[in-house]
Specification:
This protein is an alpha/beta fold. 45% of the residues lie in helices and 18% in strands. A hairpin with a 7-residue loop joins β7 and β8 (212-217). It binds one RNA strand through β7, β8, β12, β13 and α12.
Length: 922
RNA sequence: GGGUGCAUAGCUCAGCGGUAGAGCACUGCUUUCACACGGCAGGGGUCGCAGGUUCAAUCCCUGCUGCACCCACCA
């Protein structure tokens, strides 16, 4: 098959991807006797579309996966997508809003239908885009975090944790998102620095209204819910006030002045208002004092909730503020206090304010009942697994980040007041007690049937599962005559945090809780490839769940890659307009160029600065490779299946075979070390510098001279090296290599992606030395020609003096090559140096270029002087070093010897240069 | 406030105790036979600053400066 003149990435990509996928080349094989190699894809959000961060992470994973497939492993790259609770719900709600409706109007069931519809329509976007990137996961095994099987795993985990008392319901302050109307976890809160004010208010003393106690706040509206003012017990300024009361302005309640360690006397006035229902610190203070009568006598024990779910002021506030939005209320409270002369001062400040990472609105600490996972307990094993090295982070420094977070972890709030997600498998039974009060009992079970039977057993009466409102209504009703009395059960309406199901991904996708063969075979996985931004969200939680439910780590290695930024180091964002779209890059430069760029730029511990120019550069590399393959084909280099690399005779062939062996070994090491940058660099240098710049050039005299000695061998070698090169490049550049492999016809009908890397015997050093010498000779001659402005078209003679017999042999062997590459028309041995010639010293040999007619002798003198000067500097440095007795005495002998040798070599060359200089003296 | 990373050629980055490297950009030559998305040659760096360890420091240690990021923090 002829290789086209130019490479057409779009056509090639469209041709090979379906071929790979349809042939089953991506599939794992549980029956295989090969060692498994497993990577779990970090499931992208179904709402998502491919951005550069995706392109990076999936490219690196695909590189690893393709490499291991070609090196004898049974690979499972498990694909899938995440239902992304809040994100997806927001997208669909936004669409509803455009149609002037809302989820509330639709109702839960209808709304969920809409989300599923939307998922069916748009959920395939990201996986289609992944295909464009050349990703090769086992698509047949694709999972969605809301799949039925995964839902079973979620329920099972929930129930187990509940039974083990590692999951429980608790009423405390949560991070409340008043826009999404749900609780969120600490991790979903983003601290943003904003400009605000510190307001200092005066609270009049109860027994002397002319005196004030001054407090400061950044959230004036919360003063309506103050339950106390706290001062430090050792603060002399306030000791006399502890135990007394102040009159809370606007509300006109009396609140106590209490002593607690929390206030910092150095900060502000040293007196702190305590608003237990709206501040995490204040809540803790309240908990320490809640049993004191100054709290128990207050409304709701001093824990006064001011907000409804929208963060509008509720019935616990004075009439004039009820129904106001929190920020409106803030203005009113300030104005009203000011009118009363109770504003001491207002300072402008910058401070950090919590925002919802999805909704972007200010988060309120809000009192509510939620489900929590005892993360502290689960963290113990997750920590131990890393401490003992069962899971390793690459680069290692991320271990510390992981430790720091897990060692200080708070309970994980897992319930969300959303509709889209795994509904919590808890049911509540309602019964009216003899005292007329309703008793609520919780039944946690994997299925409704199980919950019902538990409830039935508990209540000793028939159970009816209904919705929440009906349950409450019915429970209070007395059944009509003849009607059976039921125990009413309703399901918890909340859903679980998205990350709850993601945490199970490494085993839920393999069929857990069933003990499937896949689970046995592919868990624990080999490596997790991800960005540092989800170490807490995801990595740590998978570790916790994996250790707890599988008694083993979910992955042996965690490779943390960089963030992709723009060329100026700025984070890419739509608002900044500096987004580089991966699909756009693929269209412009081809997929392989993008993949190579991302791989090459993956330096450990450094963010990636990406610019289209870099991708363009690697597009050029692809073109270079393409043309090298064309060269081979045009010169009759047909692949010979019987070719044995260790039998080649010609020096150039022995040399390039040795280089293949070396490169393959280096690559294997770089893969082991996860050094993607070095993988790319090694490939780039080998293809461009070794193969194209030298091997192809060195082989031309053989390939392009009819009947030249060693021509069949050279043709076969070139074809073989090209085939090896394609194999080595394939993990990074799958498309162009597959296309060229087909063109090379190395293995008719076989796909490159399923070929194996074959170990190559390491080449001989003699050939490498000889080619090094040849390269140096040619390069030096070219340099001299260039520097002396010898026209490129001018052929010159080469006169050789003092060449040892081995060197003479080399000159003879490479006669045609030297003539061609250095543009020399004859090579002859001489004993007497010619006059007026440029000279090159290479080891023992001196080479003269008689250029009397062409060169400017003054220029040649300058050139020789410059070179001598460089050498003399070097010699001086070495001599000084060797004159240092301490160096000679203390440095390792081989280092001293090396320096001595270098000094001698330099001195020898200098001597010859000086001779040469004399020959052209004025 | 606690922590991490980075600082090497104009740019983006390797290297890391014993002669400073690559790619891109730049300069000169070169449309010639796989490739001008090419070839050949070349210029360019007191390796952030100050100390210390060492025979020897860009590399190890300490301090400083600058940049980036993470965690905590609404008195």
């Amino acid at each position: 098959m002829a290789i086209e003149k130019t490479y057409d990435p779009a056509a090639t990509e469209a041709k090979h991807y379906p071929r790979w996928e349809q042939s089953g080349a991506f599939a794992c094989n549980p029956q295989s006797d090969k060692k498994p190699y497993t990577i779990m894809i970090p499931p992208p959000n179904v709402t998502g579309s491919l951005h550069m961060g995706h392109a990076l992470t999936f490219t690196l994973q695909d590189v690893l996966v393709r490499y291991h497939r070609m090196n004898g492993r049974d690979v499972l790259w498990q694909p899938g997508t995440d239902h992304a609770g809040i994100a997806t719900q927001m997208v669909v709600e936004r669409q509803l809003a455009e149609r002037q409706t809302s989820r509330q109007q639709l109702g839960r069931a209808k709304f969920l239908e809409k989300v599923w519809e939307w998922k069916a329509e748009s959920g395939g976007t990201i996986t289609r885009q992944l295909r464009r990137l050349g990703a090769s996961p086992d698509w047949a095994r694709e999972r969605f975090t809301m799949d039925e099987g995964l839902n079973k795993a979620v329920n099972k985990v929930f129930v187990e944790l509940y039974k083990q008392k590692l999951l429980y319901k608790d009423k405390r302050l949560v991070n409340w998102d008043p826009k999404m109307l749900t609780a969120i976890s600490d991790l979903e809160v983003e601290q943003k620095e904003v400009k605000g004010h510190m307001w200092h208010f005066r609270y009049p003393l109860a027994d002397d209204p002319t005196q004030y106690l001054c407090i400061a706040t950044t959230r004036p509206e919360t003063m309506l819910g103050d339950g106390a003012v706290a001062v430090h017990p050792d603060d002399e300024r306030y000791k006399h006030l502890v135990g007394k009361f102040v009159r809370l302005p606007l509300v006109e309640r009396l609140i106590p002045v209490i002593a607690d360690e929390y206030p910092d006397p150095e900060k502000g006035s040293g007196a702190v208002k305590i608003t237990a229902a709206h501040d995490f610190n204040d809540f803790e203070v309240w908990q320490r004092h809640r049993h004191k009568d100054y709290f128990t006598r207050q409304i709701n024990g001093g824990l006064i909730n001011l907000f409804d779910q929208h963060a509008r002021l509720n019935e616990n506030c004075p009439k004039q503020y009820q129904g106001l939005d929190r920020f409106e209320a803030r203005k009113r409270v300030i104005a009203d206090l000011d009118a009363l002369g109770l504003v001491e001062k207002i300072e402008p400040i910058t401070h950090v304010v919590p925002h919802g990472d999805r909704s972007g609105v200010v988060i309120e600490p809000w009192l509510s009942e939620q489900w929590y996972v005892n993360a502290g307990e689960l963290a113990k094993q997750a920590l131990a697994a890393v401490e003992t090295g069962r899971t390793q982070f690459v680069p290692e420094q991320w271990t510390n980040t992981y430790y720091a977070w897990l060692r200080d972890i708070e309970p994980w709030c897992v319930s969300r007041q959303l509709w889209w997600g795994h509904q919590i498998p808890a049911w509540y039974g309602l019964k009216v007690n003899v005292d007329g009060k309703i008793e609520e009992k919780t039944f946690v079970a994997e299925t409704e049937a199980e919950a019902s039977s538990l409830a039935c057993e508990h209540a000793q009466m028939p159970v009816a599962v209904v919705d929440k409102d009906t349950a409450w209504k019915k429970a209070l009703e007395t059944p009509d005559a003849g009607e059976t009395k039921h125990y009413y059960l309703y399901r918890d309406e909340d859903v679980l945090d998205t990350w709850f199901s993601s945490a199970l991904w490494p085993f839920s996708t393999l069929g857990w809780p069933q003990q499937t063969p896949e689970l046995q075979r592919y868990y624990p996985t080999d490596v997790l490839v991800t960005g540092f931004d989800i170490i807490f969200f995801w990595v740590a939680r998978m570790m916790m769940m994996g250790m707890h439910f599988m008694q083993d780590v979910p992955f042996r290695k965690v490779y943390i890659h960089a963030l992709v930024r723009d060329e100026k180091g700025q984070k890419m964002s739509k608002t900044k307009g500096n987004v580089i779209d991966p699909l756009n890059m693929i269209d412009q430069y081809g997929c392989d160029a993008l993949r190579f760029a991302l791989t090459a730029l993956s330096t450990p511990g450094r963010d990636i600065r990406l610019s289209p120019a870099r991708i363009e550069g690697y597009r050029n590399f692809a073109t270079k490779l393409w043309n090298a393959a064309r060269f081979c084909q045009m010169n009759g280099c047909a692949f010979d299946p019987a070719f044995k690399p260790d039998t080649v005779q010609l020096t150039i062939n022995r040399w390039i075979v040795g280089r293949v062996a070396q490169v393959q070994q280096q690559l294997a090491q770089h893969y082991t070390d996860h050094r993607f940058d070095l993988i790319a660099q090694t490939l780039y240098q080998f293809v461009w510098n070794d193969f194209c710049d030298w091997y192809v050039e060195l082989s031309k005299p053989v390939l392009q001279t009819e009947g030249a000695e060693g021509q069949p061998e050279t043709r076969a070698t070139a074809a073989w090296v090209l085939a090896q090169m394609l194999k080595l490049l394939h993990p990074v550049m799958p498309f162009i290599t597959e296309e060229l492999y087909e063109g090379l016809n190395a293995a008719p009908g076989k796909m490159l992606m399923l070929e194996q890397w074959q170990p190559v015997e390491s080449g001989d050093t003699a050939a490498a030395q000889e080619i090094d010498w040849l390269i140096r000779l040619i390069t030096e001659i070219r340099a001299v020609r260039n520097e002396l402005n010898v026209p490129a078209s001018a052929a010159i003679a080469l006169q050789v003096k003092d060449a040892a017999s081995a060197t003479q042999r080399r000159l003879k062997t490479h006669d045609a090559t030297i003539k061609r590459l250095a543009r020399v028309d004859r090579i002859e041995a001489i004993n007497t140096p010619p006059q007026q010639a440029a000279q090159i010293v290479l080891n023992e040999m001196t080479v003269f270029l008689p250029l009397a007619a062409i060169i400017d002798l003054a220029q040649e003198r300058a050139r020789l002087d410059k070179e001598s000067q460089k050498l003399q500097q070097e010699i001086a440095k070495l001599a000084q070093k060797l004159a240092n007795d301490d160096f000679v005495a203390k440095a390792p002998p081989e280092v001293v010897e090396e320096q001595r040798q270098r000094l001698a070599d330099n001195q020898a060359v200098l001597a010859k240069l000086q001779q040469a200089r004399k020959a052209v003296a004025e």
